[in-house]
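name: query_chain
kind: protein
chains: 1
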Amino acid sequence: MLTSRRIITSTVAIVALLATISSCSSVSNDAIRFNGESLAADDFEDLLVGFSQAVPSALSASGNITMTSAQAFLQDWISTQVLLEALTDAGVEISDENRALALEGLQQANGFSEAPQHVQDFYVLAGSAQAAASQAFALGDEEIKKIYDQGAIQSGAVCLRAILTETQEQMDLVSALLSAGQDFAATAQQFSIDATGANGGVINDEASGSQCISQEIYESQFSPDFLTALADVPVGGLSVPFEIPNAGWVILLIRPYDEVSADLPVLIAGSAVTDVTDPIIQSAKIWVNPQYGRWDLESQSIVPLS
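structure:
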C-alpha cells in the first residue's frame, strides 16, 4: 500500500502538469473519484504546488512535474480513502493518539515541516488512518502463532537458522549431533563457516534487521534449493541437508514461534489489514481523470492510458 513516505521520495514536475490540469478542467472538475468521494482538480493542483514548495529538489531542471509523481500522489489519496472506508465500516474512529503518532513520525521526514499546512494535513490523515487500521484490525498473539505454525507459505514469514559446512562429511557430523539433540545455535557457532554462525545461524532481513523475512523476499533472494529444502518442514523442524554448488552443504531450522514472536507482527499482523481492505478495493468504483491515466484493478495502481 502506498504511504506517506512519498512526501520525501516523490518527484513532481509542476509547470507542465499545472497547464495540463487547466486544459482538462472542461472535461471534469475532479482529478479522481473513489466511490462517493472525490478530489477536485483545483485541490489536487493546490496539493502539488504545496508539495513542490516543500521539496524543491522534486522539480526537474525544466521546472516540470513528472506524471509518475502525480499518479503516486493520487494513489496515496486512494489508499487513504480505502482505509477510511474500512474504519467507517468497522465503526472505528481515528483517535487523537493516532494523529499524534502520525505527526510525530512525519516530522522526522525531510521536507515535511517545510510543507504548507494543507499538505501536512493530508499526510497526517493518511498516517493516522494507517495507525488506526493497524490497531483496529490487528491480530492477537494467539492468532499470529496459529498462522505462523501453519508454515511459511500460509503465514508469509520465514524465520530460519542455518549451518553451512565446507564438506558433506562435516555436514554428516552436524546432522548426527542435531539428531542427538544438540542445540542448533550452539552447533552453528561451532561448525558453520557462514558469517551467520557467530549469532547461532540466524538469517536476518538485511534491510530491516528483523530475524524473519517475508516469503516474497525469501523466494526472490534465495536459490531454489532453499525453497525445496523447506517444502515439507514444520515449524521447529530441520531440513534435509543439501549442497549449494561452490559454497558447501547447508541444513536449515525453521525457528519455533517463541524465538521470533517479536518479529512476526509486522509480517503477519499487517496482512490482517490487507484482508479487510482488499475487498473494498475490489468492489470500489474508482475513476481517474484520463489526463493522469487509468485505474488498473489487477495491479491496484494508476497506469498510463494504453
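note: The CA atoms of residues 17 and 118 lie 19 Å apart.
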